[in-house]
Design goal:
Elements (H helix, E strand, L loop, with lengths): L4 E6 L4 H11 L10 E6 L5 H14 L4 E7 L2 H4 L5 E4 L11 H22 L5 E4 L4 H10 L9 E3 L2 H15 L6 E2 L2 E3 L7 E3 L4 E2 L2 E2 H5 L2 H13 L1 H9 L5 H16 L6 E6 L11 E9 L2 E4 L7 H21 L5
Parallel strand pairs: 1-2, 1-4, 2-3, 4-5, 5-6
Antiparallel strand pairs: 7-10, 8-9, 10-11, 12-13, 13-14
Helix pairs in contact: 1-10, 4-5, 5-11, 6-8
Bound molecules: 1,4-dihydronicotinamide adenine dinucleotide.
The site of 1,4-dihydronicotinamide adenine dinucleotide has 27 residues, from α1.
């Protein structure tokens, strides 16, 4: 039998984790032959609720769940972690400005980045889900100078999955046949879902849809505003679909995408005019625990303007937290 992998998850008492933890323990993230030890972090007042979630995990009798650690100390929760999914973040409360939100989360992700730096496995794979996800991932990366920067990623997978689902519905084709779809940039309404290279069964998606107005005026805004639409409908932000995207992201990163393009928020290597280290959604292929940004794609004028707009937002967020990074 395989040795268990240690999966640290923050925000364990929250709504995303109420789906995510059960799927990890069920083997959906790391494989049906991979035992896992969950190392759960939340803030002190939330620990009783985390205990309740752990009681339910026990009651599932998952064969792959080899242990559970609960803590309010990141130095404990990240100890020897092979995977860290950072879901917990400070939600925006009434009267809180964007700047205050950035600041509050900056404080969380500097501490967590340092704890990963000091205690996690040197190969730890970090996925930041908590918003603003790209900038939080950037802060954690910059706070962990002893870990390879490519170990830090932000979640754009929900946006990618939303885009894929919209295309499947529009074309009437199966969602898993979609290849070479990309979502560029920030996990925010400025993101740019790009269908220009996408194919189904080798056929161009843009050619199949053959309606540029739909792509620009319906598809792009629908994907960008999907999070808000879920809140409007449900009264709560997306949770099960966010958990599912986190499962997909880590699953593909570790087990490989078999040549398929998926989208991850990763530190830029300077390609496509995106400044190095900017945590930006790129098309990647994944294999054996590494991801490779798809290179050499042509960027037309429309795409350039969309990619620059989402970059500008990220640069602004970065400027807002620069003082926290010393
Ligand atoms: P939630 O409010 O239900 O749960 C958040 C949990 O994080 C709470 O249990 C809270 O106590 C905990 N927490 C707060 N500060 C913490 C800290 N310093 N350390 C550890 N835990 C801490 O929120 P939900 O719905 O689970 O969402 C979590 C985050 O994920 C939010 O920031 C949300 O905006 C974001 N999100 C990101 C998506 C993406 O695609 N990147 C999609 C959906 C949500």
């Amino acid at each position: 039998a395989k040795a268990p992998m240690r999966v640290a998850v923050t925000g364990a008492a929250g709504q995303i984790c109420y789906s995510l933890l059960f799927r990890i323990a069920n083997g959906d993230m790391l494989g049906k032959d991979q035992p896992v030890i969950l190392q759960l972090l939340d803030i002190t007042p939330a620990l009783p609720a985390v205990n309740g979630v752990v009681m339910e995990l026990e009651d599932c009798a998952f064969p792959l769940l080899a242990g559970v650690v609960i803590s309010d100390d990141p130095n404990v929760a990240f100890k020897d972690a092979d995977v860290a999914v950072l879901v917990g973040a400070r939600p925006r409360s009434k009267g809180m400005e964007r700047k205050d939100l950035l600041e509050a989360n900056g404080a969380i992700f500097t501490v967590q980045g340092k704890a990963l730096n000091d205690h996690a496995s040197r190969n730890v794979k970090v996925l930041v889900v908590g918003n603003p996800a790209n900038t939080n991932a950037y802060i954690a990366m910059k706070s962990a100078p002893d870990l390879p920067r490519e170990n830090f990623t932000a979640m754009l997978r929900l946006d990618y999955n939303r885009a894929a689902s919209q295309i499947a519905a529009k074309t009437g084709k199966a969602v898993d046949g979609i290849e070479k779809l990309t979502v560029w940039g920030n996990h925010s309404p400025t993101m740019y879902p790009d269908t220009r290279f996408a194919t189904i069964g080798g056929e161009s998606v843009d050619g199949m849809i053959n309606d540029q107005a739909w792509t620009r005026d319906t598809f792009i805004p629908t994907v960008g505003k999907r999070g808000a639409a879920i809140i409007e409908a449900r009264g709560l932000s997306s949770a099960a679909s966010a958990a599912n995207a986190a499962i997909d992201h880590i699953h593909d990163w570790i087990l490989g995408s078999n040549g398929k393009w998926v989208t991850m928020g990763v530190p830029s290597n300077g390609d496509y005019g995106i400044p190095a280290d900017t945590m930006y959604g790129f098309p990647v292929t994944t294999e054996n625990g590494t991801y490779t940004i798809v290179e050499g794609l042509e960027i037309d004028e429309f795409s350039r303007s969309k990619m620059d707009a989402t970059l500008a937002e990220l640069e602004e967020e970065k400027a807002g937290i620069a003082h926290l990074l010393g």
